[in-house]
Amino acid sequence: MKLDVVFRIAAKIFIPFMLVFALYVQFHGELGPGGGFQAGVVAAAMVVFYAIIFGLESAQKIVPPRVVELMVPAGVGIFAGVGVVSLLLGENYLNYSPFGGDSQHGQEYGIILVEIGVLVTVTGTLVAIFYSFVGRGRE
Amino acid sequence: MNLLQEIIAHYNHWIIIFLMVSGLYIVVAHGNMIKKLVGLSLFQTSVYLLYLSPGKILGGTPPILSDQFTVYSNPLPHVLILTAIVVGVATIALGLALVVRINEAFGTIEEDEIFAEDEDE
Amino acid sequence: MISAHLPALQVVLPLLGAVVCAFLKRGSWAWLVALAVSLVLPAIALGLLYQTYEGGTISYALGGWRPPFGIEYRVDIFNAFVLVLVSVIGAVIMPYAKRSVEHEIPEDKQAWFYAIYLLCLCGLLGIAITGDAFNAFVFMEISSLATYALIAMGRDRRALLAAYQYLIMGTIGATFYVIGVGLLYSMTGTLNLADMANRLAGIEDSRAVLAALAFLTVGISLKLALFPLHVWLPNAYAYAPSMATVFLSATATKVAVYLLLRYFFSVFGVSVIYADLPVSWIFLVLSIAAMFGASLVAVFQANIKRMLAYSSVAQIGYITLGIAIANKTGLAGGIVHLFNHAIMKAALFMALGSIFFRIGSVRIEDLAGIAKRMPVTAGVFVVGGLGLIGVPGTAGFISKWYLGLGAIENGWWWLLMLIVLSSAIAVLYVGRVVEVMWFREPSPVAKKAEEPPLSMLLPTLLLTFATIYFGFDTFLTAHMADLAAQLLLTGGR
Predict the structure, then answer these.
(1) If you compute the radius of gyration of chain B from its CA atoms, what whole number of angstroms results?
(2) HSE-CB for C349 with a 13 A CA cutoff
(3) How many alpha carbons lie under 13 Å from residue C88 in its C-beta half-sphere?
(4) Contact status, residue C450 vs residue C313, Cβ threshold 8 Å
């Protein structure tokens, strides 16, 4: 597999664009179709793609399993934490209005923040599922 | 004639019902644990369509505000189903993980073989 | 300020706790976090119960989006009661959990175990607190997925099989529930339960609404293990880790019953359920079948954990009997049995978990003569068993008293006879175990047993005393259940 030049070159071309596309979908989320879930799936697909071409070991060198395992609760923590910040600012849980100057901007910033949480968790979860299924029975 | 038109007019419901029943049938009728999960997934997918098809309004555009349009499709079903899809993914992933471990523990994923083995204990 | 946000905190705290637990590597630290969260939750729940008792229904707009457009958390006296039940059970079992989990779960999995447990707790509390149909589905799946994982952590390899079977059944149940909600949503255009009830007025007898009711009933009945849909329950309870069994038997099915009652009474309303449809008769037949069928099966179980699981199916029959009796007294009996059964079954499973902790088995032949070495634990089993039978002076009697009174109000004397008769079967299965525990020569393993550590014994004793206490003082149980039944039957929400 590692000798297959076409795959490796093609992967090297594709992967940066996949990452850019994931980020585009991510940061477009509060204005149009897109958001953390879709972006997270694209980002996870990138890792899966890399692992298929270059092998699980090299993928795990770039994205270590321990990091992936921490990403899952970290994203949930970001999401829930944003809600706690709303509480501390005296509003209802997950009310983003006080985050910006006016409530419209507050909502925008709030969505961006929680979408980052969604991105982290979805990427982490899907990569973790992939790692555990592929790595099963190897060691 | 009228009846026929009515049947054709609700074609989305027929597709949903077909998927729903075939999914449930696979879950019940098959002893292979992977096939059961496939059936389960099909069953869940039919529900996604149940939500999505009434959400589309004829002549409606995507629900992004614009002066040119007055009729929009309902976005809420899509949001709900996105959540349901995530739940479905989690369920299938957990189910497959259990099947992998069952295969390691029992050496098979056929239900009848496992039950036969279980009775010996 | 904080009292206004109690509904959100009730659900968010266990979620945050789960996040912290997932970060921690050491099981004992995760236990500390879970303990801290579990001890705060009952305070919040009692605060909510007090607020609803004094000031009526609380509505909390999540994210500041006004209901019915946003997700609403809606607390009335009935779900405040359920919240208290779930969170109190959660708090009582946490001290017990430490030693039991150390014994049954490998060290590197313990932090995950507590994280998953807190997610399960979060899901159950969420179902009980939310006023949104789809939100309830999401919480249902959070708790169910967590439950499958908890069961699969059992040491026996059959735990995996039990978890898989529960996953298939549970997902079918949840999907039926979503189908029901989807049909209601396309008929009413809303997901807010209170709003849905208003918009259903006038279209109750349309075919789509009736189909929705059927799908919801079957889906939730799968989750609450109503008699013919209970087949997942015995194996799941028998092979799950002890602590998970205690928690699930006391809470999971109870929350599903809550959801069913919420749909029946707050969304569809008494007239649809009882006047237009034979719901009362269906539940009557199924409940009686559960009371007798499951009790009889329980008598012949060699695995005592499995025996108690079948007994749970039978006891759920008494709870749903309250729906069938269809008057205020009977319904209050069903609701109070939610609470009473939870504390009795939790005490019994805790005692059994302590025995498993000491002798590593829950088979009846190994339990022989164990009372000589573990008299307190075996005593707990006697008290809990008397509660299951419904002996006066225990909490179980109060439930059956109300159910019996409700049956008499309907003029159903034969039902009273059946309740007494089915209790006689409970005498058989409880008596069999008690006889073996107290009056047999000790088995080889039982000879080496001793009382469990205090951290396990004290919570067990606490619930045992609660079983007796709530047999006399019924303010928190029967009085609250009475108010809840009143609220439900008048269509309150």
Answers:
(1) 20
(2) 35
(3) 19
(4) no
Which of C:16-75 have CB within 8 Å of A? 16, 18-20, 22-23, 60-64
| Digit-coded pLDDT (tens) for C140-191 | 999 999 999 999 998 888 899 999 999 999 999 999 999 999 999 988 988 9
| DSSP-assigned letter for residue A138 | T
pLDDT in tens, B77-115: 888 998 999 999 999 999 999 999 999 888 888 888 888
Q: Which of C10, C16, C20, C66 to mutate to test the interface with A (most CBs of A within 10 A)?
A: C16
The separation between CA C242 and the C-alpha centre of its own chain, rounded to angstroms, equals: 16
Cis peptide bond N-terminal to B75, omega within 30: no
- A72-131 per-position pLDDT tens digit: 999 999 999 999 988 888 888 888 888 877 888 888 888 888 999 999 999 999 999 999
Cα torsion angle, C187, C192, C193, C199, sign: negative
Spacing of C-alpha A116 from chain mean position: 7
Contact between A73 and C115 using a beta-carbon 8 Å cutoff: yes
Closest by Cβ to A32, choosing from B64, B86, B104? B64
pLDDT per residue over C6-64, tens digit each? Answer: 999 999 999 999 999 999 888 889 999 999 999 999 999 999 999 998 888 889 988 88
Six-digit token string for C121: 């707790």
CB contact under 8 A, C8 and A72: no
Tokens 């439900």 correspond to: C488
Cα-to-chain-centroid distance, residue C16? 23
Single-letter amino acid code for the residue at B54: P
CB contact under 8 A, A73 and C22: yes
What amino acid is encoded at C63 in this protein? G
Taken in order of first residue, the domains within chain B and their CATH numbers are 2-55+73-120 (1.10.287.3510)
pLDDT above 90: percentage of residues in chain C:
61
